[in-house]
Write a structure and sequence with these properties.
5-stranded antiparallel β-sheet; 81 residues; alpha+beta
């Protein structure tokens, strides 16, 4: 899959199919996470990184300016895990 992020993924689905954009705090940090669902009774669909980001192994500059969290290679998952 090409590089993207959860917001771009959710907006594309929203404009193409309607539905709802769900916003919550990320499980992995202080930033927001976006997912999309066709109806509120269905599980959300989200775009997440293929591998978790190992913050402690990153150079200090990427911890201060986390540009790698903006556009990344990811996968589409169902649910909010």
């Amino acid at each position: 899959m090409r590089r993207s992020n959860c917001l771009i993924f959710a907006l594309r689905r929203f404009y193409a199919e309607g539905g709802y954009i769900i916003v919550r705090r990320s499980h992995f940090g202080w930033w927001w996470h976006f997912s999309w669902t066709r109806s509120l009774s269905e599980p959300p669909i989200a775009y997440v990184p293929q591998r978790p980001i190992e913050w402690r192994k990153l150079p200090w500059i990427l911890r201060i300016l986390p540009l790698h969290t903006v556009i990344y290679r990811g996968t589409i998952v169902e649910g909010d895990q």
